[in-house]
């Protein structure tokens, strides 16, 4: 191997920094192979700059001079050569920048590579000053969420327009600080855009506590979601109980009677070509009456079973108080404009986020409620295309429950609409944020539609492989460190950042944190007393199915 210049062991730190630490021995597309000098790396190990001190380690960055530019690469893996005197490394090329003549520091960094190095090109350590330039946000709208590892003061920022314009996913195993990190990102977005429009589906009731000051909180007590906003597919999910060929027969009956019920209202009569999906108010009593009327037209008593199944189910839901937030007789007025205004924060009035707590919704229709809300976001965006644009961010916690893969698929309408938003939403100004601890349970292709992936620690091998397949090539070196991430640390790659980075999230004030702390068994199991009253109050709420 060619000797590297500047091997004086007594050189000053500044002089050592100008010395190469290795050279390129192989180039192949977006990757390359370099060989490090262990003595040079050891000499830099005690440097005051933590970025320089970490030079050559897995996940660190190095720079190569090609012509008049600096090429930045990320170290993916290390291996000792057979003679034990050198270390070979696989690197991924991330981007390039100009050199500042006075300081030699990177400037005007941009993603992508226009010119590749030749074998024999020298490799140099990256410094904190270079990182500041790489992560400089210039004049782009951004939010700061933490510090770049392993620095103490280089701020990590997300480009908001790129983050939201091409969807994002936040992934991490339970207990890694995922909920707090999601709250941090959403708080920063709300601070940047107090007149924004954010809708968050909260399946566990965690986030209400975090957004009391700058959000509108909705649950079964105040959601007031009119049943007639459902489209036909959602009606089928709620009202049909049959399976197989009988289900199609029931669906045909429901379609005919639902269209008659919608057409009976004044609004329905004003529309020349009314469809069964149109959000026109109708009375549940009218729907039941039309089913009864159609059943009365039959000659043979044996054919009445589908009608009776439908009628019984609708009456059962109408009478069940758990469904009152949606199927109440008070929700028959045309409140669609008011509902959209409240839920989509139009205008936001300084509270740009709606937290939809669906933890109190009966489990049988939770998926339908989420489907309705998601579809309304998408439909509103489609039908308002000729209006002044009002982009909406839809954040879905526990996303794997609603967009399951083929192995867990139940062909529900919520999976179809969220998959459609993932594929087409950005054309209409709808952004999707997915939060999940089981990315491998998500529908195939949905994760790859997310332009920015924020990966916290993932303990499951299958989840890690799934994320690895969805992330861009240049982030592979970072991905290997996912199992070793600490709580509230993450790897971010994609459109929302200049290059893939490892980030330590900022601390979030107590009042802005979600109610997602784990119970402290060692402490709580020392407490005793008042158990009778606890049980009595719990049973009362349990029986009333109230919260």
TrEMBL record:
Pfam families in the cross-refs: DUF87
SUPFAM superfamilies, sorted: P-loop containing nucleoside triphosphate hydrolases
Entry coiled-coil feature ranges: none
Gene3D superfamilies, per database record: P-loop containing nucleotide triphosphate hydrolases (3.40.50.300)
Location of the Helicase HerA central domain: 143-377
Matching InterPro entries: HerA-like, HerA_central, P-loop_NTPase
Lineage top rank: taxon: Bacteria
Name of this protein: ATPase
Organism expressing this protein natively: Sphingomonas panacis
